[in-house]
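Quick one: structure tokens for this chain, please?
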Amino acid sequence: MRPAAPYEGEIRTEGPVTVVYLHDSSGEVAACGTIAVVGTDAITDRVETDAAHRRRGLGRAMMSALAEAAVVQGDRIAADGLA
């Protein structure tokens, strides 16, 4: 995951749940999202970009990071989409 500058990504995984945060240059959360993998299926939830940071490619960066995390956790559909 490589969001456009000046944004930095942070990924936290606990068990089957991964939360991705994209922080702006002041450290505030500009976007975030959650994905959980159950078996070989992934469930995406709470994907949001703060209104002040929209239209900068953060949604795409977020969904890419969530899909990559799902593949690591064993999701097969995301793996097919990333191939």
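The domain at 8-82 is CATH 3.40.630.30 (Aminopeptidase).
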